[in-house]
Amino acid sequence: xxxxxxxxxxxxxxxxxxxxxxxxxxxxxxxxxxxxxxxxxxxxxxxxxxxxxxxxxxxxxxxxxxxxxxxxxxxxxxxxxxxxxxxxxxxxxxxxxxxxxxxxxxxxxxxxxxxxxxxxxxxxxxxxxxxxxxxxxxxxxxxxxxxxxxxxxxxxxxxxxxxxxxxxxxxxxxxxxxxxxxxxxxxxxxxxxxxxxxxxxxxxxxxxxxxxxxxxxxxxxxxxxxxxxxxxxxxxxxxxxxxxxxxxxxxxxxxxxxxxxxxxxxxxxxx
Length: 271
Description:
Layout: H1 4-18, H2 36-47, E1 51-52, E2 60-68, H3 73-82, E3 87-91, H4 102-113, E4 117-120, H5 133-151, E5 153-155, E6 157-158, H6 167-175, E7 179-181, E8 185-186, H7 195-208, E9 212-218, H8 222-238, E10 242-243, H9 246-249, E11 256-259
């Protein structure tokens, strides 16, 4: 019986086969080769963006920061440098501040030139699960456009605000060429944890010594930038972890979907 998923899978296979060179002789899979579960899996992989909530490279920590660029971005970059650490910044277009401001342009360029990964947190920090597909696409592409103008890159990774996503939003992200990144450790800064409480959380995870850690922090809190981060880096470094970007912690994936020459400031640089 040809279920919808098997028919869609066959269509995908046919498209793939048509792109193969004429002298390719290995037999391509046929519709009858696939179980319903295999066909559904193939369709999902082709139409839904991957969701990463854990690193895959052993002994790595991905330190990530949401909601910027903001006031303490460069302080964070300087602290990371002290520990030979690379971080990942999931930035908004117009959340705490407009991404196009001259201060934020400088912050982004400083972080990017220091080797840190710049990723998308979409435009206005809206809950994806409440948006139409067209609205979500706009939230993604406006941020991508801004980062292409400022840095010359379109991120390959995007983090949904609040960590909320659904099937429809994964479809939009896939069509936009981006993978989703969540986390497996939350410092708690955005939900009111004190410095002491966040430090305790870092101490506890360090003592558990998992193979990898994918952290969630927010660059919009001065205490995170100036107190919690130095403690976290010192504590985790003592356990032998290597601090890498999200792309690196996932096995060395490309952090950017496209790279081009950065633009020059003009009248379109506004929120």
